[in-house]
Amino acid sequence: MPEKKNEPAFTVTDRRLFRDDGEARTDAAEPETPAAVPPATAEPASAAKSGIAEPEMVVPPSAAEQSAQADAYKQTTRALDDALGKEIGAPRPEDLEVTLERFLASIYMSALVQLGLAHERGGTPRLDLIGARQSIDTIAMLQEKTKGNLTPVEQNFIQNALYELRMAYLEVTNAIARPPQPGEVPGPKK
C-alpha cells in the first residue's frame, strides 16, 4: 500500500499589512491586482482642473457575453417557474412578470412608507422625507423619459401616482412646519 505524503490540502497566505500590535509588517505579501481590472490611467485635464475625479469607464460585456448571460438567465427562470408550478397555490409565472405598472406601484408604496402613511401592521410609521422626495422624483423622471411610449393605462397610473404622492408630501411637510394648534391632538387626522 503506497504511503500518503503529509501535504497540506491548501495553503494559507497571510496578506495582512500590519501585525497585532499595529506595526507594519515587512514580510507581508504584495496584494495582487486582479487581471480583469485595467491599470489606472492619468486623469483627464478637465478633472484635474476642477478637482473632481471622473469615473473610469468600465468596458461593457460583448454582445456574445450578453446573449449567453441572457439565455442562461431565461433558462434558470424557466426552471424556477416549472418548479414553482408544481407547488399547490404557488404564483403563476404571469403573476411574477415585471411590468411598468408593478414597478411604479413598488416605488409608489415605498414613497407612502417613507412619508409615514403606510407601515407594517402593529409597527410604527417612520418618516423619511429625503427618501420620499427621491421616490417621487424617480417616478417623475420615469414619466419624462417614457413620454410618448406609455399606454393610456400606464400614463393614467403614473399621473395619478405623482399627483397623490406630491399632495401627500405637501401635507406631511406642512404638518411638520406648522406648530400644533391649541387643543389639537398630535398625530394623523382620522
Account of the protein in words:
It contains 6 helices and no strands. The protein is an all-alpha fold and 190 residues long. Helix 4 runs parallel beside helix 6 (152-177). The longest helix is centred in the last third of the chain and has 26 residues, at 152-177. The N and C termini lie far apart (85 Å). The mean pLDDT is 80.
Shape: extended
Which structural category do the helix and sheet elements fall into? mainly alpha
Let me know the largest β-sheet. none
What is the CA-based Rg, rounded?
28 Å
Name the average pLDDT: 80
How many DSSP E strands? 0
Count helical runs: 6
- Give start-end ranges of low-pLDDT stretches: none
The amount of helix comes to 40-55%
What portion of residues belong to β-strands? under 5%
Distance between the termini: 85 Å
What letter string, H or E per element, gives the SSE order?
Answer: HHHHHH
Topology record:
Layout: H1 45-50, H2 63-85, H3 93-96, H4 100-114, H5 129-145, H6 152-177
